[in-house]
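> forwarded from #structure-qc
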């Protein structure tokens, strides 16, 4: 199976701090050691951040609305958003740090003006938040850069997805589509992982993945087993920190478990066939059954079907080979409840 491209989404979990963003980047880049097999598993592949233009976010009335949530970083929603917004130079600093640790860097640019950041650096990919799938002017501006694009379908149906693809493919077709449900957290009965199968059948020319907002790691791991090639998940240093997304994100232990299980799934998928793997040969010999004696058979006696039954180990005759045993003569005494081997009979 191809390696799953795993994206650790920082989102606003940096709480307005470059240092905290870098700590999350370190978490993303950390290899996963599996003590059971004594191996290191490849960590996440990429980290993602989001850049907003607060003049293009909400109406003035919405931005000036009092924001009294325990997770608020300002008196109004506008002040809250401004506190959480890192500037272009700060994004560049996090980008450089991620690249120094061998990670890809992905940006969600929420407005045309945010493309000014591309003067400082070029992200490996651009991510379109599902709320902007219908923002066709923004999609055109993003596509014009020719940077690979990842679309998230969290608030979109087929119509919205097709219209977005029509705009982007005028410029390029290096596109990935992530099944997503924009419910935070997403309830299990709303996840509908079978959409991944639908997307692979109907949009197979693109890479298909899953942007996950569920609690835990079962949904992304299952998605990989269904053929998802990209997984995106919110991550944080501490789920107890202040912030609306912290509680629904994966902390360090969750990151370890999710990446471990996804990498295991990659190794476990194998081929579409049934066969005896070399790794089970020892168990097959030890545990499988062979034709054995029910009673002590003396030298010169002819073996009948009543004289035999099946016992382990599995290195003797199988039941489908019983005609090679029944009617044969014992060349030497074979004690009761012992395997009958070729050298024992004639």
């Amino acid at each position: 199976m191809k390696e799953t491209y795993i994206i650790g989404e920082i989102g606003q979990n940096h709480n307005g701090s470059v240092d905290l963003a870098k700590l999350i980047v370190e978490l993303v880049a950390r290899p996963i050691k599996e003590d059971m097999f004594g191996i290191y598993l490849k960590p996440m592949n990429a980290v993602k951040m989001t850049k907003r233009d607060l003049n293009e976010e909400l109406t003035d009335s919405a931005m000036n609305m009092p924001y009294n949530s325990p997770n608020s970083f300002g008196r109004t929603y506008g002040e809250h958003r401004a506190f959480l917004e890192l500037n272009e130079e700060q994004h560049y600093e996090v980008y450089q740090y991620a690249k120094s640790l061998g990670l890809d860097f992905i940006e969600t640019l929420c407005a045309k003006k945010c493309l000014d950041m591309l003067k400082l650096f070029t992200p490996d990919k651009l991510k379109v938040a599902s709320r902007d799938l219908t923002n066709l002017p923004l999609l055109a501006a993003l596509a014009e850069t020719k940077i690979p694009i990842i679309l998230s379908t969290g608030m979109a149906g087929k119509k919205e997805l097709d219209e977005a693809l029509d705009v982007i493919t005028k410029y390029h077709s290096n596109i990935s589509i992530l099944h997503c449900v924009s419910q935070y957290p997403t309830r299990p009965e709303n996840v509908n992982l079978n959409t991944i199968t639908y997307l692979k059948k109907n949009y197979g020319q693109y890479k298909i993945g899953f942007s996950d907002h569920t609690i835990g790691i079962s949904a992304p791991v299952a998605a990989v087993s269904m053929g998802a090639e990209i997984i995106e998940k919110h991550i944080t240093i501490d789920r107890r920190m202040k912030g609306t997304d912290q509680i629904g994100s994966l902390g360090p232990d969750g990151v370890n478990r999710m990446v471990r299980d996804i990498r295991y799934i990659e190794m476990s998928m194998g081929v579409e066939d049934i066969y005896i793997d070399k790794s089970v040969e020892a168990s097959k010999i030890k545990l499988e059954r062979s034709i054995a004696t029910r009673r002590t058979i003396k030298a010169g006696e002819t073996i009948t079907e009543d004289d035999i039954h099946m016992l382990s180990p599995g290195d003797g005759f199988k039941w489908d080979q019983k005609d090679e045993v029944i009617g044969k003569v014992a060349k030497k005494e074979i004690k009761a409840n012992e395997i009958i081997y070729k050298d024992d009979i004639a």
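QC bot note: Residues 252-268 form the longest helix (17 residues). The longest strand covers residues 46-51.
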